Amino acid sequence: MKTMKKLFGIVLLLMVSMVTDADELVKFDTNKFTGGKVEKASEAVLPQEKEEDPVYVQVTITVTPDPGYYITKEDIVVMATYPLPETPAVKTRTEGEEEKKPEFASQIELIRDDPLELTKARNYTFTIEKGFGVWVTEANFKQAATEGKFEGSEVSWSLKTVESKGEADPKLILTLEGEGSASLGDGSAPWSMQKSAITNLVVSKGVTALGAGLLSGCDHLSSVEIQNDKSVIALGEGAIPANDGLSVDVPGNIFNKYQMNDGWKGFNIDSKNKVLMGKVKFVKDKNNYDVFAPEQDMKVPVGVFAYSVNKIKGDEILLEDVATISKGKVVLLYSEEIQTKELYTAAIPEPTKTRADVGDEEKEKERICELKVVTKDPNKKDEDQGLDVKLGQVYMLYNDVFYPTQAGRIPVGGIYLEIKEDKKDEVLMTRSFLTIGGVADDADDAITAIDNSPLSIVHCPLSTSWYDLRGRKLNAAPTAKGVYIREGKKYVVK
Known about the structure:
By secondary structure, this protein is mostly beta strands.
């Protein structure tokens, strides 16, 4: 008899544990759910300790805010009613009437799933006695802020949801625009309701610093794009979370500066627009100058100066500062900071040729001097490639100074300075050396030692004058302490 009774109890438990039709237990006032939806997820009959105990049902509902909306537990109203609800538990009050509730109606307690994410789908559970029904009467979704401005700053922020092909979840992109520092001060982040959903950060060109704790709690941030190509963005403590897989994309012309910056150590720094400047060699405490010809148009990296060599005045080469380098254009490079063989810069789009461009090319032909690179001649055999030069025909850079070469061949890729003939200056090609100067008569771009010579050099004995490191000729042999140049060699006066 006991066995039969126990078996009957198991069958009864299985029967009452079956999920009932949603309309019989949970109803929704859908007209009020703007900004999201509420759905019944599941229901289950809880086991009884004693047969005479009431039967209870555990119900779970799912709350899903639309993109840009959020909701708290306090914004959801669920009423328990008896008998099963046919009309809303709380009726809308009309003019002159008091709010009416059905008999035995009471608000039930919701238990929220953890962790709390107000902008994402989450579950709430509650328990009611069997025979009761529930009516979800309110779900007050609120629209989260999507834009604003930092207090006391010229920097604004905005949030944008972007659907991505092949990805189930949309991207939530936080963009910072304006001039100066983006800082929270003593306040909280205005996007705090959506911080867990932020996946991308874009920092525009004018922003120079990110304040402490700016993106604290943005645990799903996976991409940071820096657009400021003038200087390294300063970081406050914890400004960007060190999430696994987080990548930081910086402009190619400032890539090297980020890699050497202590504040950005530990982040995965890369650049979609970086181009390796091949064969550039700046050796610490020795070579701050080099010559270079790019294979495509590019910007000059921060920390490096590029000079176009165009004119000669006396024995000094005058330099013209350039911010971008055209494909195949040979320039003189100078750096005091970056000491690396892997020097990166940013590629720029191929320029569209205009009539003005053609005119500029015509003007270049009038230059007195020009750095050039030896290119491969398709009409020559490999063993005949290169440029054959006569004694003193061109100049090569060696130990601070451009010297006239001896007769020989400059290999393909070799860079040299060509002096164009000028009938007004018949002794132009007989100069023993040309020092590196500056724009106009500014000689502050001082000479530093460079060991860069694909050809052997003629040290012309015609000059017995003394020069300082700025290329200035002395009236007599030096007596003051310092480093001086005579006949292409360095002398130290102690």
